[in-house]
Amino acid sequence: MRIVLTVIFVLVSIALSVIVLAQQGADAGLGAIGGIGDSYWSKNKSRSMEGKLVQVTRILAVAFVVLAVVLNLNF
To answer: CA-to-CA distance for 22 and 45, rounded, in angstroms?
Structure first.
């Protein structure tokens, strides 16, 4: 059981690294100061590919932490 969890942990770690590197930086620039950042694109970002990458990143991050805690338990 521990070997299977370790393999899943390694796969989640690799996938999380790839997904984080695939995302673009959050460079809003000076437009965010004046409220220019609230465009159609920023309001509908969750439906785009970047929004999906953010959701997958959150899921993989939670899986990473849960697997790290489970693997650290002595059972």
So the answer is: 16
pLDDT of residue 17: 95
pLDDT at 31 exceeding the cut of 60: no
Of residues 15, 4, 26, the one with CA closest to residue 61: 15
Long-range contacts of 56-60 (CB under 8 A, 24+ apart): 56/19, 57/16, 57/19, 57/20, 57/23, 60/12, 60/15, 60/16, 60/19
Tokens found for residue 10:
């390694």
> Given 3-state DSSP classes, what are the helix, strand and coil percentages for the chain, each rounded to the nearest 5?
75, 0, 25
Q: In whole angstroms, what is the distance from residue 66 CA to residue 60 CA?
A: 10
CA pair distance 45, 20, nearest whole angstrom? 17
